[in-house]
Write a structure and sequence with these properties.
By secondary structure, this protein is of the alpha/beta class. It has a single domain, classed as Aminopeptidase. 30% of the residues lie in helices and 22% in strands. It is built from six helices and seven strands; from the N terminus they run αββαβαββαββαα. Strands 1-3-2-4-7-5-6 form a seven-stranded mixed sheet, sandwiched between helices. The chain is globular.
């Protein structure tokens, strides 16, 4: 993983043109929110997955890279992600789910975060629907740092999804969704995990 160009959102906003990124956020009457802090062209597919999981029920927040190139520059690590709307959405929720993209072969979802009980419930539901689920070998991709944006909800713990590119591409491609497990399976499994 390359080191980040910017150490905080403030630094990014001071250096990048306003057209380089887009923020979409909605607070709903929900105790759960879904985030894609590296959405758009930063980690492809994560915005689409976050939107799908939020549906019309859960609060959500998207930070999307929109530059013609070099969107990786807009990656601010989750522990340093301090964009005010993101903080507002997360802090008004009990629990946050964060959609991230990672490298890796095959279609795998790595679950992490401080809410290990919820992560285990979601992992079971995803596995039951045919998804390959695991824990990332890289400690920095396990989401256990208290300062991670998704661990700043009222309960102080959230769930991190690190999803390989192959799976993100397939789930967010209209043709790829015809193959199981589908985007609907992904959303249904997460909702089932949340309801346990």
């Amino acid at each position: 993983m390359n080191s980040d160009r910017y150490k905080s959102f403030d630094e990014l906003a001071a250096s990048e043109d306003a057209s380089a990124f887009r923020i979409e956020a909605e607070k709903r009457n929900s105790s759960i929110c879904v985030l894609a802090p590296h959405g758009g062209k930063i980690e492809l597919g994560t915005s689409d997955l976050a939107r799908a999981v939020a549906g019309n029920r859960l609060s959500y927040y998207l930070f999307e890279g929109r530059k013609p190139k070099a969107n990786r520059d807009l990656h601010v690590t989750s522990a340093n992600f301090n964009q005010p709307q993101a903080i507002a959405v997360v802090e008004s929720s009990d629990v946050a789910l964060a959609m991230h993209g990672c490298e890796g072969d095959g279609e795998v979802i790595y679950l992490g975060g401080r809410h290990s009980k919820l992560a285990a419930s979601i992992a079971k539901a995803l596995s039951n629907r045919g998804f390959s689920v695991g824990t990332h070998k890289n400690p920095s991709l396990q989401g256990i740092d208290r300062s991670n944006i998704f661990n700043r909800g009222k309960l102080g713990m959230g769930v991190q999804f690190e999803i390989t590119q192959a799976l993100r591409v397939r789930l967010t491609d209209k043709k790829g969704q015809l193959k199981a497990p589908s985007l609907k399976d992904f959303v249904d499994a997460i909702n089932e995990g949340l309801s346990q």
